[in-house]
Inverse folding.
């Protein structure tokens, strides 16, 4: 494949504006914080303290701050307001290239590797890509009609992936709705079920710390870290881990089948990283496990924790964390086991649907990855 460089194709000429000079004017602002929302902010000039870049529809924005996150945005020009962007964006404009083609290329593994290869800063969120070096990065030379075909293909597969992920989310929501329908609100307990605390009816404990050598010694028991709990949309899928330990090493650190596990430290506390173990696992110290006694089914306990905002239990330390003493006082209702088993049967049916959707998602993601490799190397 033949290549040119970003600098050679980029026709954008930087032009700045001081929004504060026109305090009553509304601007369409492409800021880094608003990227995750998928939409620009709409702010008055009086609300914008610093100078911004003037951009227009079709400009591709490539974020230079913390480039490992790989923020790529196409200016949509959603309104009649002047579109502006923060200086943290590198702006690329080219009549020879379809903006969506460039955006997909900038999201490709090969380009992401380039973006993090020559950063300045001390690390983490303080690193920045260097615009002068980015201008020298390669861009494949592709006929514009072919670009449009590639974009159409990638958009189609991406739409399938997004749809499958949304279906998984909806199935999870269905379980939560069914839980409330059968058992009532967990706080108000409208059916008057017997209540106790998690500490009284469950075993609560943290994972165990192993040396790097022990983590990878081999064996049959997965050694799970918080990062292994990120599998999209499926609480019952545990082990993306490639680390396995022996039964001897795991020892009393094994969480049995039916244990609800979740992060206990860091920003992951407030996420949906809650999993129900379907096999015995060993976990590290950043993972907490709650195992129910006979009066509570694992499916009921899992659904209960999915309705709990664990982030709200953070004790306010400099590093967010929750401990056994934060979990133990949580009040849980104990409905009759026949009702819990009825709910477990429903969860089992939903899990079958989720497994089918997850399988389709895996295949679509594999196809997408192979296409990105084919088109961009």
């Amino acid at each position: 494949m033949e290549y040119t460089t970003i600098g050679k194709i980029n026709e954008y000429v930087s032009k700045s504006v001081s929004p504060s000079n026109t305090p009553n004017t509304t601007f369409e602002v492409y800021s880094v914080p608003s990227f995750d929302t998928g939409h620009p902010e709409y702010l008055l000039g009086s609300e914008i303290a610093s100078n911004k870049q003037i951009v227009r529809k079709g400009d591709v924005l490539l974020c230079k701050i913390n480039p490992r996150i790989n923020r790529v945005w196409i200016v949509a020009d959603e309104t009649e307001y002047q579109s502006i962007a923060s200086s943290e964006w590198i702006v690329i404009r080219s009549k020879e290239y379809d903006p969506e083609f460039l955006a997909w290329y900038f999201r490709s593994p090969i380009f992401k590797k380039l973006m993090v290869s020559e950063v300045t800063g001390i690390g983490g969120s303080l690193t920045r890509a260097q615009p002068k070096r980015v201008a020298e990065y390669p861009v494949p030379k592709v006929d514009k009609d072919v670009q449009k075909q590639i974009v159409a293909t990638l958009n189609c597969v991406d739409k399938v992936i997004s749809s499958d992920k949304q279906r998984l989310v909806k199935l999870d929501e269905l379980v939560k709705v069914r839980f409330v329908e059968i058992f009532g609100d967990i706080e108000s307990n409208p059916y008057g079920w017997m209540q106790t605390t998690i500490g009284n009816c469950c075993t609560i404990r943290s994972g165990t710390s192993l040396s790097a050598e022990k983590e990878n010694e081999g064996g049959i028991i997965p050694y799970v870290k918080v990062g292994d709990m990120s599998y999209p949309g499926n609480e019952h899928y545990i082990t993306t881990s490639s680390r396995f330990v022996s039964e001897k090493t795991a020892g009393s650190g094994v969480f049995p089948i039916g244990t609800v596990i979740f992060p206990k430290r860091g920003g992951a506390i407030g996420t949906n990283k809650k999993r129900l173990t379907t096999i015995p696992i060993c976990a590290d110290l950043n993972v907490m496990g709650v195992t129910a006694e006979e009066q509570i089914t694992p499916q009921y306990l899992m659904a209960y924790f999915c309705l709990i905002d664990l982030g709200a239990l953070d004790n306010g330390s400099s590093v967010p964390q929750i401990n056994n003493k934060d979990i133990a006082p949580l009040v849980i209702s104990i409905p009759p086991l026949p009702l819990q088993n009825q709910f477990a049967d429903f969860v089992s049916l939903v899990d079958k649907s989720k497994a089918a959707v997850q399988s389709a998602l895996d295949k679509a993601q594999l196809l997408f990855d192979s296409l990105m490799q084919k088109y961009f190397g």
Observations:
- Residues 166-345 form a domain with the Adenine-n6-DNA-methyltransferase TaqI; Chain A, domain 2 fold (CATH 3.90.220.20).
- The longest strand covers residues 287-292.
